[in-house]
Specification:
The protein is of the alpha/beta class. The chain folds into two domains: about 190 residues, D-Maltodextrin-Binding Protein, domain 2 (3-Layer(aba) Sandwich); about 260 residues, Periplasmic binding protein-like II (D-Maltodextrin-Binding Protein, domain 2, 3-Layer(aba) Sandwich). It is built from 22 helices and 17 strands. The strands form six sheets. The protein has a five-stranded mixed beta sheet, with helices on both faces.
Length: about 500
C-alpha cells in the first residue's frame, strides 16, 4: 500500500486540510508552492506496484537532484524508482543503444539537449495536460524551443542553460586594481566588451595575489578539457565573430550547400583568442573541466569565467567567501564580424553580441515506456515550483533559470539573500539573452557527438601548439564533410533546418 490507512477517529478537518496546512518538512520543504505537480498534488497519487527506471548524469550535476526528487517521489506516491548514474562521456551511448536495439531499458531520460536530433524519434510527446501545467506555462520561449522538435514537444524543460560572463565585482571596483590596470594598459578597467578586452584584463590579473589571501590568483577559468564540454566554451568565444546578425542560413553549416563554416575567418579568430588566453589560466588550467571552472571562479581563485550558471551560483551560496562580491554580464562581443555572404569583415561600432543558448540538461520519456503517466508525473514533480526554487540555489545541481518567475528580483533578493546589485546584473544578463535575436543554438543533428568530438580534438591541438588555428579548423571542416557524407547530407540538412529556424527567428 502507498501509506497506512488513517484512523476513523481522524477528523475530517485533518483529512481535508488545505495545502497550506500540509507538512512536508521531512523533505526539507518549508512551504509547498501551489502548482500542478506540487508536493500536495503528488501526495494524492498512488503508484504502488509501479517501477520507474531513470537514467541520468553522474552525481552531482543533474544526477544529484534526479536522485533526490526520485526518493521524494517514491515516498509521496508509493512508486519504486531506480536511478542509474552515468558519466557524461558514456551517457549518449547508454541511452542510444537500448533505443537502437528496441530495449525498454528506461522510462525517464536526463541528457544534454544537443542530442535531441538523435533521440527525437524515440521519445514520447509531452501530453497536453503537462504542456498546460502551471510550471510549463511559465517556461520562457528559448526553452520551449529547445524542448520542441518541429511542432512536437518531445522534451520536458527542467533547466535553462546559457553561457554568460561572470566577474569579481569587488576587484573591478577596487581603486588599487584599477590603478594597476591603468598603469599596465593605459586605459581604464572596464567590464570586457569584446574577447580581446577579456584576454587583456585576464592577463593583467594573472599570477599575483590580488585578493590578499596569501595565494596567487588568475584572470580566467575556462572549460578546456577536450572531453569535458570544451566545445561549448569554444563556441561561446567564436559566436560574435562568426554569427553575423544580417547573414541567415546557418552558423555551423551553410544550410543550402551543407558546407561546414567552422574554418571561416570568424571561427579561426575565435580559436586564436582562445589559444591566446592560455597565459591567463591557473597552473593546470588547460585541463580544467566544468567542475574545475565552477570551483575556480566560485571559490575565488579567478577574476572571470564564462559558462553555465553553476560557477556563479557556487559563488553566491551562503558559505561562499565571495558571496555578493560577483556580478554577471553578457558574453563579450566582437568589433569585427565575418560576413560569409560578402567574404569580408564588417566593423561594428557597438560590439556584436551573439548569445549562445548552449546545450542544457533536458529530460524526456521513452516512447517504449509502459509507465508514461508515472514518468511524466515524475518529471512534472522534479520541475515543480518548490523543487526548482530550491535547486536553483545549489551550484553543483546544474539547474539554472528557465521560467519567467526566475527573473523576478524578489526571488533572489528576498528569498535567497542576494544584494540588489548582484541580482540586477544576473537578471538583466539572463533575461536579455532570452530576448536577443542574434542567438546561436546547439547543432542538434544526428551524429552531433561526432561533430563535437572532431571540433574538440582540433581545438585541443591548437591549444597544445601542435597546429595553427587555421590548420586545426581546416582539419575539423574536412572531418565534418566526411561525417555528413556518412550520415547522409539530406538527413543532416533536414535536422539542421530546425536549428536554423531558431537562429533565424523563423519560429
Amino acid at each position: 500500500m502507498k501509506k497506512t490507512t488513517l484512523s476513523l477517529a481522524v477528523t475530517s478537518a485533518i483529512l481535508f486540510s488545505s495545502s497550506a496546512m500540509a507538512d512536508y518538512s521531512r523533505f526539507g520543504v518549508e512551504n509547498d508552492i501551489p502548482g500542478t505537480c506540487s508536493f500536495t498534488e503528488m501526495d494524492k497519487k498512488d503508484y504502488s506496484g509501479t517501477t520507474l527506471n531513470i537514467i541520468t548524469h553522474a552525481v552531482p550535476v543533474i544526477g544529484e537532484p534526479t536522485a533526490l526528487h526520485a526518493q521524494q517521489f517514491e515516498d509521496l506516491t508509493g512508486a519504486k524508482v531506480n536511478v542509474v548514474h552515468v558519466p557524461f562521456g558514456d551517457l549518449f551511448q547508454r541511452i542510444m543503444i537500448p533505443f537502437q536495439t528496441k530495449q525498454n531499458a528506461y522510462d525517464v531520460l536526463f541528457y544534454g539537449s544537443l542530442w535531441s536530433g538523435d533521440f527525437q524519434k524515440f521519445l514520447a510527446e509531452v501530453p497536453e495536460s503537462y504542456r498546460n501545467s502551471s510550471g510549463m506555462a511559465d517556461v520562457t520561449r528559448n526553452y520551449i524551443d529547445v524542448a520542441t522538435w518541429e511542432d512536437r514537444m518531445i522534451q520536458y524543460p527542467v533547466d535553462g542553460d546559457r553561457h554568460y560572463l561572470k566577474y569579481r565585482l569587488d576587484i573591478f571596483n577596487d581603486a588599487s586594481a584599477q590603478a594597476k590596470f591603468m598603469e599596465e594598459t593605459g586605459r581604464a578597467l572596464t567590464i570586457p566588451e569584446t574577447w580581446e578586452e577579456y584576454n587583456e584584463v585576464a592577463a593583467v590579473f594573472s599570477g599575483w595575489d590580488w585578493d590578499g589571501d596569501g595565494n596567487p590568483n588568475y584572470g580566467s577559468a575556462e572549460v578546456v578539457a577536450r572531453d569535458n564540454l570544451m566545445f561549448s566554451a569554444f563556441i561561446s568565444r567564436v559566436a560574435p565573430y562568426a554569427k553575423h546578425p544580417d547573414v541567415k542560413g546557418g552558423f555551423f553549416f551553410d544550410l543550402e550547400t551543407m558546407e561546414p563554416q567552422v574554418n571561416n575567418p570568424g571561427w579561426v579568430k575565435g580559436l586564436e583568442l582562445f589559444v591566446d588566453a592560455k597565459k591567463t589560466w591557473a597552473p593546470g588550467g588547460s585541463n580544467y573541466g566544468l567542475g574545475d571552472e565552477i570551483f575556480s571562479f566560485g571559490g575565488g581563485e579567478t577574476l572571470m569565467s564564462y559558462s553555465w550558471d553553476d560557477a556563479f551560483i557556487q559563488a553566491m551560496q551562503a558559505d561562499s567567501p565571495i558571496r555578493n562580491k560577483v556580478a554577471a554580464a553578457p558574453l563579450p562581443g566582437a568589433g569585427q564580424v565575418w560576413n560569409r555572404d560578402t567574404g569580408s569583415w564588417d566593423t561594428f561600432e557597438t560590439p556584436n553580441r551573439a548569445p549562445y543558448i548552449t546545450w542544457g540538461w533536458t529530460a524526456a520519456v521513452s516512447e517504449m515506456s509502459k509507465n508514461k503517466d508515472a514518468a511524466f508525473d515524475y518529471l512534472c514533480f522534479f520541475s515543480n515550483e518548490t523543487n526548482t526554487q530550491s535547486d536553483l540555489q545549489i551550484g553543483r545541481f546544474g539547474v539554472n533559470p528557465y521560467r519567467t518567475a526566475h527573473f523576478e528580483k524578489s526571488l533572489w533578493v528576498d528569498e535567497m539573500g542576494w544584494d540588489e546589485a548582484v541580482a540586477d546584473s544576473y537578471i538583466d544578463t539572463l533575461s536579455g539573452m532570452d530576448t536577443n535575436t542574434n542567438r546561436v543554438f546547439d547543432l542538434r543533428v544526428p551524429g552531433v557527438g561526432q561533430f563535437m568530438t572532431s571540433m574538440a580534438t582540433g581545438v585541443a591541438a591548437a591549444i597544445a601548439g601542435q597546429k595553427t588555428a587555421q590548420e586545426a579548423m581546416d582539419g575539423v571542416a574536412a572531418e565534418w564533410e566526411q561525417i555528413v557524407d556518412r550520415i547522409g547530407k539530406d538527413r543532416v540538412r533536414e535536422a539542421y533546418s530546425v536549428v536554423v529556424a531558431l537562429e533565424d527567428n523563423e519560429r
